[in-house]
Specification:
The protein has helices spanning 2-15, 23-27; strands at 33-39, 42-50, 57-62, 69-76, 81-88, 93-98, 105-113, 119-130, 133-142, 145-156. The chain is mainly beta.
Length: 157
């Protein structure tokens, strides 16, 4: 009888439609936890957590004792895309979107508004390299493609 009940529960789970309300933690949840990101002359900590009382994931980021910010990440069903709303302590703001995880990477594109009022456009790729590492690649538009401007490596700790 227990095997029958377990089989019925498994069948229901496997055939249930995807509930986008849980998608943020189901798909982007791999990032939950703390990460040390470092590149040439730069070290930052990113801490991804479930935003209390919501379906969003929050990312508190920045160098120890320095300027950082907080971002909120989630899936918006009406737009059929992921959003990453990034609020910088200095007043800057990024509003990037992604179609989601594809071939082991999240690709985010959209504008960054500097505190001085300039609008910059670009792309950020989060390339998952292993269970405890992802690389970030920062790019700007160049001709018909993109040019790498910076990159770093993030490791879970």
């Amino acid at each position: 009888m227990a095997k029958l009940v377990a089989g019925v529960i498994l069948a229901v789970v496997l055939t249930a439609p995807l509930d986008h309300r849980s998608t943020a933690t189901d798909q982007f949840g791999w990032f939950l936890g703390s990460w040390k990101c470092s590149g040439p002359g730069y070290v930052s900590v990113n801490t991804f957590s479930r935003a209390p009382g919501s379906r969003w994931i929050a990312n508190h980021w920045g160098p120890k004792g320095g300027q950082g910010g907080v971002a909120y990440i989630g899936f918006v069903p009406a737009q059929r895309q992921w959003i990453y709303e990034d609020f910088h302590d200095d007043g800057g703001y990024a509003q990037v979107t992604s179609p989601g995880l594809k071939d082991g990477s999240w690709t985010w594109t959209g504008p960054y508004y500097t505190p001085e009022g300039t609008v910059l456009h670009g792309r950020i790729v989060y390339a998952i390299e292993s269970h405890d590492r992802y690389d970030r690649i920062f790019e700007r538009p160049a001709g018909s493609g993109f040019q790498r401007t910076a990159s770093d490596t993030c490791r879970r700790f």
